[in-house]
Protein backbone atom coordinates (compact mmCIF):
# COMPACT_ATOMS: atom_id res chain seq x y z
CA UNK A 1 0.00 0.00 0.00
CA UNK A 2 1.31 3.41 -0.98
CA UNK A 3 -0.02 6.94 -1.28
CA UNK A 4 -0.78 6.56 -4.98
CA UNK A 5 -3.02 3.53 -4.39
CA UNK A 6 -5.46 5.82 -2.54
CA UNK A 7 -5.05 8.81 -4.84
CA UNK A 8 -7.50 10.66 -7.04
CA UNK A 9 -5.45 12.59 -9.59
CA UNK A 10 -6.16 16.00 -11.09
CA UNK A 11 -4.42 16.35 -14.45
CA UNK A 12 -3.19 19.81 -15.46
CA UNK A 13 -1.71 20.84 -18.80
CA UNK A 14 -0.13 24.07 -17.50
CA UNK A 15 0.72 25.85 -20.76
CA UNK A 16 -2.93 25.57 -21.75
CA UNK A 17 -4.59 26.25 -18.41
CA UNK A 18 -2.52 29.40 -17.84
CA UNK A 19 -3.04 30.71 -21.38
CA UNK A 20 0.68 30.74 -22.21
CA UNK A 21 1.81 31.78 -25.73
CA UNK A 22 2.12 28.94 -28.22
CA UNK A 23 5.76 29.81 -29.02
CA UNK A 24 8.57 30.36 -26.52
CA UNK A 25 10.75 33.41 -27.07
CA UNK A 26 13.08 32.40 -24.22
CA UNK A 27 12.59 35.87 -22.74
CA UNK A 28 12.23 36.98 -19.14
CA UNK A 29 10.11 34.63 -16.99
CA UNK A 30 6.36 35.25 -17.02
CA UNK A 31 5.04 33.97 -13.69
CA UNK A 32 1.88 32.31 -15.00
CA UNK A 33 2.34 29.23 -12.84
CA UNK A 34 1.40 31.36 -9.83
CA UNK A 35 -2.10 31.75 -11.28
CA UNK A 36 -2.59 28.05 -10.53
CA UNK A 37 -2.15 28.50 -6.77
CA UNK A 38 -5.87 29.29 -6.26
CA UNK A 39 -6.72 26.07 -8.09
CA UNK A 40 -5.21 24.02 -5.27
CA UNK A 41 -8.12 24.70 -2.92
CA UNK A 42 -10.57 23.84 -5.68
CA UNK A 43 -8.72 20.59 -6.41
CA UNK A 44 -8.89 19.73 -2.72
CA UNK A 45 -12.60 20.63 -2.53
CA UNK A 46 -13.58 18.09 -5.19
CA UNK A 47 -11.74 15.28 -3.42
CA UNK A 48 -8.53 15.06 -5.44
CA UNK A 49 -5.39 14.45 -3.41
CA UNK A 50 -2.76 14.25 -6.17
CA UNK A 51 -1.84 16.36 -9.20
CA UNK A 52 -0.24 15.27 -12.45
CA UNK A 53 1.10 18.45 -14.07
CA UNK A 54 3.13 18.82 -17.22
CA UNK A 55 4.96 19.35 -19.37
CA UNK A 56 6.72 21.98 -17.27
CA UNK A 57 10.25 22.47 -18.46
CA UNK A 58 11.77 24.83 -21.02
CA UNK A 59 10.60 23.98 -24.52
CA UNK A 60 9.89 25.47 -27.92
CA UNK A 61 6.12 25.19 -28.20
CA UNK A 62 3.66 22.62 -26.82
CA UNK A 63 6.08 21.51 -24.11
CA UNK A 64 7.13 18.10 -25.40
CA UNK A 65 10.15 19.37 -27.32
CA UNK A 66 12.29 19.95 -24.21
CA UNK A 67 15.26 22.29 -24.42
CA UNK A 68 16.23 22.32 -20.71
CA UNK A 69 15.16 19.65 -18.21
CA UNK A 70 16.31 21.70 -15.23
CA UNK A 71 14.56 24.99 -15.89
CA UNK A 72 10.85 25.78 -15.66
CA UNK A 73 9.49 26.98 -19.00
CA UNK A 74 9.96 30.75 -19.01
CA UNK A 75 6.35 31.16 -20.16
CA UNK A 76 5.34 29.70 -16.79
CA UNK A 77 7.90 31.38 -14.55
CA UNK A 78 11.11 30.36 -12.81
CA UNK A 79 12.20 27.44 -10.65
CA UNK A 80 11.18 29.22 -7.45
CA UNK A 81 7.59 29.38 -8.73
CA UNK A 82 7.58 25.62 -9.22
CA UNK A 83 9.08 25.04 -5.78
CA UNK A 84 6.35 27.18 -4.26
CA UNK A 85 3.61 25.38 -6.18
CA UNK A 86 4.73 21.93 -5.01
CA UNK A 87 5.24 23.18 -1.44
CA UNK A 88 1.72 24.65 -1.38
CA UNK A 89 0.29 21.36 -2.63
CA UNK A 90 2.20 19.41 0.01
CA UNK A 91 1.00 21.77 2.73
CA UNK A 92 -2.54 20.71 1.78
CA UNK A 93 -1.68 17.00 1.59
CA UNK A 94 -1.71 16.87 -2.19
CA UNK A 95 1.03 14.90 -3.95
CA UNK A 96 2.54 16.11 -7.22
CA UNK A 97 3.98 14.25 -10.20
CA UNK A 98 5.68 15.83 -13.23
CA UNK A 99 5.63 14.92 -16.90
CA UNK A 100 8.94 13.25 -17.83
CA UNK A 101 9.59 13.67 -21.55
CA UNK A 102 12.61 11.38 -21.86
CA UNK A 103 12.04 9.72 -25.23
CA UNK A 104 13.09 12.78 -27.23
CA UNK A 105 14.27 16.38 -26.92
CA UNK A 106 13.77 19.54 -28.89
CA UNK A 107 16.33 20.80 -31.37
CA UNK A 108 17.40 23.56 -28.96
CA UNK A 109 18.59 21.04 -26.37
CA UNK A 110 22.28 21.53 -25.56
CA UNK A 111 23.38 18.10 -26.86
CA UNK A 112 21.70 18.58 -30.23
CA UNK A 113 23.05 22.14 -30.56
CA UNK A 114 26.54 20.76 -30.00
CA UNK A 115 26.07 18.25 -32.82
CA UNK A 116 24.94 21.04 -35.13
CA UNK A 117 28.09 22.98 -34.31
CA UNK A 118 30.75 20.25 -34.14
CA UNK A 119 29.16 17.55 -36.29
CA UNK A 120 31.25 14.33 -36.28
CA UNK A 121 33.52 15.64 -33.52
CA UNK A 122 30.68 16.30 -31.07
CA UNK A 123 30.84 14.11 -27.94
CA UNK A 124 27.03 13.98 -28.07
CA UNK A 125 26.71 12.48 -31.55
CA UNK A 126 25.66 9.15 -29.98
CA UNK A 127 23.11 10.75 -27.65
CA UNK A 128 20.55 10.47 -30.43
CA UNK A 129 19.39 7.57 -32.59
CA UNK A 130 20.77 7.03 -36.08
CA UNK A 131 22.52 10.35 -36.63
CA UNK A 132 23.70 10.23 -40.24
CA UNK A 133 26.09 12.93 -41.47
CA UNK A 134 25.59 11.76 -45.03
CA UNK A 135 21.97 12.89 -45.05
CA UNK A 136 19.98 16.06 -44.57
CA UNK A 137 16.53 17.27 -43.47
CA UNK A 138 14.07 20.14 -43.93
CA UNK A 139 16.13 22.27 -41.52
CA UNK A 140 19.21 21.85 -43.75
CA UNK A 141 21.33 20.60 -40.84
CA UNK A 142 23.61 18.70 -43.19
CA UNK A 143 22.72 15.49 -41.35
CA UNK A 144 19.59 13.46 -40.53
CA UNK A 145 18.44 11.56 -37.48
CA UNK A 146 15.67 9.42 -36.09
CA UNK A 147 12.73 11.42 -34.82
CA UNK A 148 9.57 10.59 -32.90
CA UNK A 149 6.17 10.47 -34.53
CA UNK A 150 7.51 11.64 -37.89
CA UNK A 151 8.42 15.10 -36.57
CA UNK A 152 12.04 16.22 -36.88
CA UNK A 153 11.20 18.80 -34.23
CA UNK A 154 11.35 15.86 -31.78
CA UNK A 155 14.80 14.26 -31.84
CA UNK A 156 14.80 10.70 -30.47
CA UNK A 157 17.23 10.08 -27.62
CA UNK A 158 19.44 6.99 -27.68
CA UNK A 159 18.32 5.47 -24.38
CA UNK A 160 20.80 2.61 -24.71
CA UNK A 161 23.67 5.09 -24.40
CA UNK A 162 24.92 4.94 -20.77
CA UNK A 163 25.64 8.69 -20.83
CA UNK A 164 22.02 9.45 -21.76
CA UNK A 165 20.75 7.06 -19.12
CA UNK A 166 22.95 8.65 -16.46
CA UNK A 167 21.89 12.14 -17.50
CA UNK A 168 18.16 11.41 -17.25
CA UNK A 169 18.63 9.64 -13.92
CA UNK A 170 20.41 12.77 -12.70
CA UNK A 171 17.48 14.87 -13.93
CA UNK A 172 15.13 12.82 -11.73
CA UNK A 173 17.39 13.28 -8.72
CA UNK A 174 17.48 17.02 -9.46
CA UNK A 175 13.68 17.24 -9.62
CA UNK A 176 13.38 15.53 -6.24
CA UNK A 177 16.13 17.63 -4.67
CA UNK A 178 15.01 20.94 -6.19
CA UNK A 179 11.22 20.61 -6.26
CA UNK A 180 10.39 17.69 -3.92
CA UNK A 181 8.34 16.00 -6.65
CA UNK A 182 6.56 12.73 -5.71
CA UNK A 183 6.66 10.88 -9.01
CA UNK A 184 6.86 11.06 -12.79
CA UNK A 185 4.55 10.29 -15.67
CA UNK A 186 6.77 8.96 -18.47
CA UNK A 187 5.73 10.35 -21.83
CA UNK A 188 5.62 7.79 -24.68
CA UNK A 189 6.54 4.94 -22.35
CA UNK A 190 5.33 2.42 -24.92
CA UNK A 191 8.39 3.23 -27.07
CA UNK A 192 10.93 3.64 -24.27
CA UNK A 193 13.73 1.10 -23.95
CA UNK A 194 12.94 -1.39 -21.18
CA UNK A 195 16.46 -1.37 -19.73
CA UNK A 196 16.20 2.42 -19.63
CA UNK A 197 12.94 2.22 -17.68
CA UNK A 198 14.45 -0.31 -15.29
CA UNK A 199 17.25 2.16 -14.57
CA UNK A 200 14.64 4.85 -13.86
CA UNK A 201 12.88 2.46 -11.47
CA UNK A 202 16.13 1.93 -9.57
CA UNK A 203 16.47 5.68 -9.17
CA UNK A 204 12.84 5.94 -8.10
CA UNK A 205 13.47 3.38 -5.39
CA UNK A 206 16.42 5.43 -4.15
CA UNK A 207 15.27 9.05 -4.21
CA UNK A 208 12.12 8.94 -2.11
CA UNK A 209 9.85 6.42 -0.38
CA UNK A 210 6.97 5.46 -2.67
CA UNK A 211 8.27 7.57 -5.56
CA UNK A 212 5.83 6.73 -8.35
CA UNK A 213 6.54 5.95 -12.01
CA UNK A 214 3.55 5.92 -14.34
CA UNK A 215 3.93 5.44 -18.08
CA UNK A 216 1.93 6.55 -21.09
CA UNK A 217 1.07 3.29 -22.87
CA UNK A 218 -1.61 3.12 -25.53
CA UNK A 219 -1.79 -0.55 -26.57
CA UNK A 220 -0.43 -3.91 -25.53
CA UNK A 221 -0.16 -6.17 -22.52
CA UNK A 222 0.18 -3.70 -19.67
CA UNK A 223 1.92 -6.27 -17.47
CA UNK A 224 5.02 -5.85 -19.67
CA UNK A 225 5.40 -2.39 -18.11
CA UNK A 226 3.69 -2.74 -14.73
CA UNK A 227 5.84 -4.97 -12.54
CA UNK A 228 8.35 -4.84 -9.70
CA UNK A 229 11.27 -4.06 -12.00
CA UNK A 230 9.83 -1.44 -14.35
CA UNK A 231 6.86 0.88 -13.73
CA UNK A 232 4.23 1.11 -11.01
CA UNK A 233 1.38 1.92 -13.40
CA UNK A 234 0.43 2.87 -16.96
CA UNK A 235 -2.36 4.84 -18.62
CA UNK A 236 -5.41 2.62 -19.04
CA UNK A 237 -6.43 3.45 -22.60
CA UNK A 238 -8.30 0.16 -22.92
CA UNK A 239 -10.72 1.08 -20.16
CA UNK A 240 -10.90 4.67 -21.41
CA UNK A 241 -12.28 3.47 -24.74
CA UNK A 242 -14.69 1.01 -23.12
CA UNK A 243 -16.12 3.58 -20.70
CA UNK A 244 -17.36 6.01 -23.32
CA UNK A 245 -18.25 3.59 -26.13
CA UNK A 246 -19.87 1.14 -23.71
CA UNK A 247 -22.24 3.88 -22.62
CA UNK A 248 -22.75 5.34 -26.10
CA UNK A 249 -23.70 1.90 -27.44
CA UNK A 250 -25.71 0.87 -24.35
CA UNK A 251 -23.25 -1.99 -24.05
CA UNK A 252 -22.05 -2.55 -20.50
CA UNK A 253 -20.77 -5.92 -21.72
CA UNK A 254 -17.87 -4.10 -23.40
CA UNK A 255 -16.91 -2.42 -20.12
CA UNK A 256 -17.26 -5.59 -18.05
CA UNK A 257 -15.31 -7.62 -20.62
CA UNK A 258 -12.50 -5.05 -20.59
CA UNK A 259 -12.39 -4.99 -16.78
CA UNK A 260 -12.26 -8.78 -16.65
CA UNK A 261 -9.46 -8.95 -19.21
CA UNK A 262 -7.42 -6.30 -17.38
CA UNK A 263 -8.10 -7.94 -14.02
CA UNK A 264 -6.81 -11.25 -15.34
CA UNK A 265 -3.85 -9.46 -16.97
CA UNK A 266 -2.75 -8.40 -13.49
CA UNK A 267 -3.13 -11.89 -12.09
CA UNK A 268 -6.45 -10.94 -10.44
CA UNK A 269 -4.41 -8.91 -7.96
CA UNK A 270 -6.13 -5.58 -7.45
CA UNK A 271 -3.33 -4.23 -5.27
CA UNK A 272 -0.45 -5.24 -7.51
CA UNK A 273 -1.86 -3.98 -10.80
CA UNK A 274 -3.21 -0.48 -10.24
CA UNK A 275 -3.68 1.16 -13.64
CA UNK A 276 -4.16 4.91 -14.20
CA UNK A 277 -7.82 5.28 -15.20
CA UNK A 278 -9.23 8.31 -17.03
CA UNK A 279 -12.09 9.32 -19.32
CA UNK A 280 -10.28 12.22 -21.00
CA UNK A 281 -6.91 13.95 -21.07
CA UNK A 282 -4.87 16.50 -23.04
CA UNK A 283 -4.68 14.22 -26.10
CA UNK A 284 -8.29 13.02 -26.46
CA UNK A 285 -11.67 14.68 -26.69
CA UNK A 286 -13.47 15.75 -23.55
CA UNK A 287 -15.79 13.11 -22.14
CA UNK A 288 -18.75 15.48 -22.34
CA UNK A 289 -18.11 15.90 -26.07
CA UNK A 290 -17.70 12.16 -26.69
CA UNK A 291 -20.93 11.11 -25.00
CA UNK A 292 -23.88 10.77 -27.36
CA UNK A 293 -26.27 11.12 -24.43
CA UNK A 294 -24.85 13.78 -22.11
CA UNK A 295 -26.76 12.22 -19.24
CA UNK A 296 -24.27 9.32 -19.32
CA UNK A 297 -21.73 11.66 -17.73
CA UNK A 298 -23.08 10.29 -14.44
CA UNK A 299 -22.65 6.51 -14.87
CA UNK A 300 -19.35 7.05 -16.70
CA UNK A 301 -17.84 8.89 -13.74
CA UNK A 302 -19.29 6.51 -11.16
CA UNK A 303 -17.47 3.72 -13.00
CA UNK A 304 -14.27 5.78 -13.26
CA UNK A 305 -14.19 6.23 -9.49
CA UNK A 306 -15.17 2.69 -8.50
CA UNK A 307 -13.63 0.20 -10.95
CA UNK A 308 -10.17 -1.22 -10.10
CA UNK A 309 -7.43 1.35 -10.69
CA UNK A 310 -6.45 4.91 -9.84
CA UNK A 311 -8.93 7.55 -11.10
CA UNK A 312 -7.79 10.75 -12.79
CA UNK A 313 -9.79 13.87 -13.68
CA UNK A 314 -8.66 16.22 -16.46
CA UNK A 315 -8.84 19.89 -15.53
CA UNK A 316 -12.15 21.51 -16.40
CA UNK A 317 -14.03 18.29 -17.07
CA UNK A 318 -15.55 18.51 -13.59
CA UNK A 319 -17.52 21.49 -14.95
CA UNK A 320 -18.80 19.55 -17.97
CA UNK A 321 -16.90 21.57 -20.55
CA UNK A 322 -16.61 20.62 -24.22
CA UNK A 323 -13.41 19.87 -26.12
CA UNK A 324 -13.38 18.53 -29.65
CA UNK A 325 -10.16 17.25 -31.21
CA UNK A 326 -9.19 19.15 -34.35
CA UNK A 327 -7.21 17.77 -37.26
CA UNK A 328 -4.11 19.93 -36.85
CA UNK A 329 -4.50 21.30 -33.33
CA UNK A 330 -5.18 20.15 -29.77
CA UNK A 331 -5.81 23.70 -28.55
CA UNK A 332 -9.50 23.08 -27.89
CA UNK A 333 -8.52 20.21 -25.59
CA UNK A 334 -6.18 22.46 -23.60
CA UNK A 335 -8.09 25.71 -22.93
CA UNK A 336 -7.18 28.59 -20.63
CA UNK A 337 -9.56 28.72 -17.67
CA UNK A 338 -9.98 31.20 -14.82
CA UNK A 339 -10.90 29.59 -11.51
CA UNK A 340 -12.88 32.69 -10.59
CA UNK A 341 -15.36 31.81 -13.33
CA UNK A 342 -16.13 28.58 -11.45
CA UNK A 343 -16.05 29.77 -7.84
CA UNK A 344 -19.67 28.67 -7.27
CA UNK A 345 -19.43 25.42 -9.22
CA UNK A 346 -19.78 23.17 -6.17
CA UNK A 347 -23.21 24.56 -5.40
CA UNK A 348 -24.42 25.62 -8.84
CA UNK A 349 -23.01 22.98 -11.22
CA UNK A 350 -24.36 19.49 -10.58
CA UNK A 351 -21.45 17.89 -12.47
CA UNK A 352 -18.96 19.47 -10.09
CA UNK A 353 -21.11 18.38 -7.16
CA UNK A 354 -21.13 14.84 -8.52
CA UNK A 355 -17.34 14.75 -8.87
CA UNK A 356 -16.93 16.05 -5.32
CA UNK A 357 -19.33 13.43 -3.97
CA UNK A 358 -17.47 10.68 -5.82
CA UNK A 359 -14.20 11.98 -4.40
CA UNK A 360 -15.57 11.80 -0.86
CA UNK A 361 -16.87 8.27 -1.40
CA UNK A 362 -13.56 7.11 -2.83
CA UNK A 363 -11.60 8.54 0.09
CA UNK A 364 -14.04 7.09 2.57
CA UNK A 365 -13.74 3.49 1.40
CA UNK A 366 -10.57 1.40 1.45
CA UNK A 367 -12.40 -1.23 -0.61
CA UNK A 368 -12.63 1.15 -3.59
CA UNK A 369 -8.84 1.50 -3.51
CA UNK A 370 -7.72 -2.00 -2.57
CA UNK A 371 -10.71 -4.28 -2.99
CA UNK A 372 -11.13 -7.20 -5.35
CA UNK A 373 -13.66 -7.04 -8.16
CA UNK A 374 -16.74 -9.25 -8.38
CA UNK A 375 -19.35 -8.92 -11.10
CA UNK A 376 -22.85 -9.12 -9.61
CA UNK A 377 -25.16 -8.30 -12.52
CA UNK A 378 -24.66 -7.52 -16.20
CA UNK A 379 -27.12 -6.44 -18.87
CA UNK A 380 -26.68 -4.15 -21.85
CA UNK A 381 -27.93 -1.15 -19.88
CA UNK A 382 -27.43 -2.20 -16.25
CA UNK A 383 -24.30 -3.27 -14.42
CA UNK A 384 -23.47 -4.06 -10.81
CA UNK A 385 -20.29 -5.20 -9.11
CA UNK A 386 -18.69 -5.24 -5.69
CA UNK A 387 -15.29 -4.25 -4.34
CA UNK A 388 -14.29 -6.23 -1.25
CA UNK A 389 -11.46 -5.60 1.19
CA UNK A 390 -10.84 -6.71 4.77
CA UNK A 391 -14.48 -7.38 5.49
CA UNK A 392 -15.80 -4.27 3.74
CA UNK A 393 -17.98 -4.95 0.70
CA UNK A 394 -19.00 -1.96 -1.44
CA UNK A 395 -21.69 -2.48 -4.07
CA UNK A 396 -21.81 -0.31 -7.21
CA UNK A 397 -24.92 -0.10 -9.42
CA UNK A 398 -25.19 1.83 -12.70
CA UNK A 399 -27.93 2.24 -15.27
CA UNK A 400 -27.56 3.95 -18.66
CA UNK A 401 -31.16 3.46 -19.72
CA UNK A 402 -33.68 6.32 -19.89
CA UNK A 403 -35.92 4.48 -17.41
CA UNK A 404 -35.35 3.51 -13.79
CA UNK A 405 -34.41 -0.10 -13.08
CA UNK A 406 -34.79 -2.19 -9.93
CA UNK A 407 -31.83 -4.41 -9.09
CA UNK A 408 -31.59 -7.20 -6.54
CA UNK A 409 -27.92 -8.01 -6.03
CA UNK A 410 -25.78 -9.85 -3.47
CA UNK A 411 -24.44 -7.76 -0.60
CA UNK A 412 -21.82 -8.14 2.11
CA UNK A 413 -22.26 -9.06 5.76
CA UNK A 414 -23.50 -5.62 6.88
CA UNK A 415 -27.12 -5.33 7.98
CA UNK A 416 -27.68 -2.10 6.11
CA UNK A 417 -26.22 -0.10 3.21
CA UNK A 418 -26.26 3.62 2.48
CA UNK A 419 -25.94 5.37 -0.86
CA UNK A 420 -22.85 7.60 -0.96
CA UNK A 421 -24.53 9.96 -3.45
CA UNK A 422 -28.13 9.94 -2.27
CA UNK A 423 -27.75 9.20 1.46
CA UNK A 424 -30.58 6.67 1.16
CA UNK A 425 -30.48 3.49 3.22
CA UNK A 426 -31.50 -0.03 2.29
CA UNK A 427 -31.58 -3.14 4.46
CA UNK A 428 -29.90 -6.42 3.58
CA UNK A 429 -32.43 -9.24 3.28
CA UNK A 430 -31.43 -12.83 2.57
CA UNK A 431 -27.94 -11.67 1.64
CA UNK A 432 -29.13 -9.21 -1.01
CA UNK A 433 -30.15 -5.60 -1.40
CA UNK A 434 -32.99 -4.44 -3.62
CA UNK A 435 -32.40 -0.95 -5.00
CA UNK A 436 -34.01 1.31 -7.55
CA UNK A 437 -31.33 2.72 -9.87
CA UNK A 438 -32.39 5.98 -11.46
CA UNK A 439 -32.42 6.54 -15.20
CA UNK A 440 -28.93 7.37 -16.50
CA UNK A 441 -27.60 7.26 -12.99
CA UNK A 442 -26.05 5.00 -10.39
CA UNK A 443 -25.03 4.67 -6.79
CA UNK A 444 -22.18 3.55 -4.56
CA UNK A 445 -23.64 1.48 -1.72
CA UNK A 446 -21.46 1.58 1.39
CA UNK A 447 -22.02 -0.77 4.33
CA UNK A 448 -23.45 1.23 7.24
CA UNK A 449 -20.96 1.64 10.05
CA UNK A 450 -20.54 4.29 12.70
CA UNK A 451 -18.08 6.08 10.42
CA UNK A 452 -20.27 6.04 7.28
CA UNK A 453 -23.34 7.09 9.23
CA UNK A 454 -21.52 10.10 10.69
CA UNK A 455 -19.92 11.05 7.38
CA UNK A 456 -23.20 10.96 5.44
CA UNK A 457 -25.57 12.32 8.09
CA UNK A 458 -25.16 15.96 7.04
CA UNK A 459 -24.79 15.33 3.33
CA UNK A 460 -27.40 16.46 0.86
CA UNK A 461 -28.37 14.12 -1.99
CA UNK A 462 -26.61 14.93 -5.26
CA UNK A 463 -28.92 15.79 -8.15
CA UNK A 464 -27.70 15.86 -11.74
CA UNK A 465 -28.80 18.21 -14.51
CA UNK A 466 -27.22 18.10 -17.97
CA UNK A 467 -27.95 21.77 -18.58
CA UNK A 468 -25.40 22.66 -15.89
CA UNK A 469 -22.57 21.79 -18.29
CA UNK A 470 -20.41 24.77 -19.21
CA UNK A 471 -20.34 25.92 -22.83
CA UNK A 472 -16.63 26.50 -22.88
CA UNK A 473 -15.21 25.73 -26.32
CA UNK A 474 -16.16 26.20 -29.94
CA UNK A 475 -17.97 22.87 -30.15
CA UNK A 476 -21.65 23.34 -29.20
CA UNK A 477 -23.11 21.69 -26.14
CA UNK A 478 -26.09 19.49 -26.91
CA UNK A 479 -29.09 20.69 -24.91
CA UNK A 480 -30.72 17.76 -23.12
CA UNK A 481 -33.18 17.47 -20.31
CA UNK A 482 -32.33 16.64 -16.72
CA UNK A 483 -30.02 13.67 -16.31
CA UNK A 484 -32.07 12.45 -13.41
CA UNK A 485 -34.37 14.39 -11.11
CA UNK A 486 -33.93 11.60 -8.63
CA UNK A 487 -34.60 13.12 -5.23
CA UNK A 488 -37.71 10.94 -4.93
CA UNK A 489 -37.34 8.18 -7.53
CA UNK A 490 -33.94 6.95 -6.36
CA UNK A 491 -35.36 5.67 -3.05
CA UNK A 492 -34.85 1.91 -2.73
CA UNK A 493 -38.17 0.06 -2.61
CA UNK A 494 -38.82 -3.54 -1.53
CA UNK A 495 -38.99 -5.89 -4.50
CA UNK A 496 -42.54 -6.98 -3.66
CA UNK A 497 -43.81 -3.44 -4.08
CA UNK A 498 -42.14 -2.48 -7.33
CA UNK A 499 -41.38 -3.57 -10.85
CA UNK A 500 -38.92 -2.00 -13.27
CA UNK A 501 -40.32 0.81 -15.36
CA UNK A 502 -40.33 -0.65 -18.87
CA UNK A 503 -41.39 1.17 -22.03
CA UNK A 504 -43.76 -0.40 -24.57
CA UNK A 505 -40.91 -0.61 -27.07
CA UNK A 506 -38.71 -2.42 -24.55
CA UNK A 507 -41.55 -4.84 -23.72
CA UNK A 508 -41.75 -5.72 -27.41
CA UNK A 509 -38.01 -6.29 -27.46
CA UNK A 510 -38.27 -8.64 -24.49
CA UNK A 511 -41.12 -10.57 -26.13
CA UNK A 512 -38.98 -10.96 -29.25
CA UNK A 513 -36.08 -12.17 -27.13
CA UNK A 514 -38.25 -14.80 -25.46
CA UNK A 515 -39.47 -15.97 -28.86
CA UNK A 516 -35.94 -16.30 -30.18
CA UNK A 517 -34.85 -18.21 -27.09
CA UNK A 518 -37.55 -20.83 -27.63
CA UNK A 519 -35.05 -22.71 -29.71
CA UNK A 520 -31.88 -23.30 -27.74
CA UNK A 521 -30.07 -24.71 -30.76
CA UNK A 522 -31.02 -21.68 -32.84
CA UNK A 523 -29.59 -19.36 -30.21
CA UNK A 524 -26.33 -21.30 -29.93
CA UNK A 525 -25.92 -21.29 -33.69
CA UNK A 526 -26.55 -17.55 -33.88
CA UNK A 527 -23.86 -16.82 -31.28
CA UNK A 528 -21.39 -19.17 -32.97
CA UNK A 529 -22.02 -17.51 -36.32
CA UNK A 530 -21.32 -14.06 -34.89
CA UNK A 531 -18.11 -15.31 -33.28
CA UNK A 532 -16.97 -16.84 -36.56
CA UNK A 533 -17.68 -13.59 -38.38
CA UNK A 534 -15.58 -11.61 -35.90
CA UNK A 535 -12.62 -14.00 -36.19
CA UNK A 536 -12.89 -13.95 -39.99
CA UNK A 537 -12.72 -10.16 -40.03
CA UNK A 538 -9.74 -10.24 -37.65
CA UNK A 539 -7.89 -12.71 -39.87
CA UNK A 540 -8.32 -10.39 -42.87
CA UNK A 541 -6.73 -7.58 -40.87
CA UNK A 542 -3.69 -9.47 -39.58
CA UNK A 543 -2.46 -12.37 -37.43
CA UNK A 544 -4.93 -13.65 -34.83
CA UNK A 545 -3.37 -14.83 -31.57
CA UNK A 546 -4.74 -17.52 -29.26
CA UNK A 547 -5.66 -14.83 -26.74
CA UNK A 548 -7.62 -12.92 -29.39
CA UNK A 549 -9.54 -16.09 -30.29
CA UNK A 550 -10.22 -16.72 -26.61
CA UNK A 551 -11.55 -13.18 -26.15
CA UNK A 552 -14.04 -13.84 -28.97
CA UNK A 553 -15.16 -17.28 -27.86
CA UNK A 554 -15.55 -16.15 -24.23
CA UNK A 555 -18.02 -13.49 -25.37
CA UNK A 556 -21.39 -15.26 -25.71
CA UNK A 557 -23.60 -12.17 -25.59
CA UNK A 558 -25.53 -11.43 -28.77
CA UNK A 559 -25.68 -7.60 -28.52
CA UNK A 560 -22.05 -7.36 -27.48
CA UNK A 561 -20.99 -9.44 -30.49
CA UNK A 562 -23.11 -7.30 -32.80
CA UNK A 563 -21.42 -4.16 -31.42
CA UNK A 564 -18.03 -5.82 -31.90
CA UNK A 565 -18.78 -6.42 -35.60
CA UNK A 566 -19.99 -2.83 -36.01
CA UNK A 567 -16.70 -1.58 -34.55
CA UNK A 568 -14.86 -2.92 -37.63
CA UNK A 569 -16.81 -0.63 -39.96
Question: How would you describe this protein?
Answer:
The chain has helices at 14-17, 37-45, 79-91, 110-118, 162-179, 194-207, 237-248, 252-265, 287-290, 297-306, 345-348, 350-364, 367-370, 450-457, 504-516, 520-541, 546-554, 558-567, and strands spanning 9-12, 50-53, 57-59, 66-72, 95-100, 104-105, 147-148, 151-156, 183-186, 212-215, 233-234, 276-277, 310-314, 372-378, 382-389, 392-399, 405-410, 416-419, 425-427, 432-437, 441-447. It has 569 residues and is α/β, with parallel strands linked by helices. Strands 11-10-9-5-2-1-13-12 form an eight-stranded parallel beta sheet. β3 (57-59) and β4 form a beta hairpin. It starts with 8 loop residues before the first strand and ends with a helix. The model is unreliable at 471-519 (pLDDT under 50).
Task: Give me a quick take on this structure.
The protein has 569 residues and is α/β, with parallel strands linked by helices. It is built from 18 helices and 21 strands.
How is the secondary structure organized here?
Blueprint: E1 9-12, H1 14-17, H2 37-45, E2 50-53, E3 57-59, E4 66-72, H3 79-91, E5 95-100, E6 104-105, H4 110-118, E7 147-148, E8 151-156, H5 162-179, E9 183-186, H6 194-207, E10 212-215, E11 233-234, H7 237-248, H8 252-265, E12 276-277, H9 287-290, H10 297-306, E13 310-314, H11 345-348, H12 350-364, H13 367-370, E14 372-378, E15 382-389, E16 392-399, E17 405-410, E18 416-419, E19 425-427, E20 432-437, E21 441-447, H14 450-457, H15 504-516, H16 520-541, H17 546-554, H18 558-567
Parallel strand pairs: 1-2, 1-13, 2-5, 5-9, 9-10, 10-11, 12-13
Antiparallel strand pairs: 3-4, 6-8, 7-8, 14-15, 15-16, 16-21, 17-20, 18-19, 18-21
Helix pairs in contact: 5-6, 7-8, 10-12, 16-18
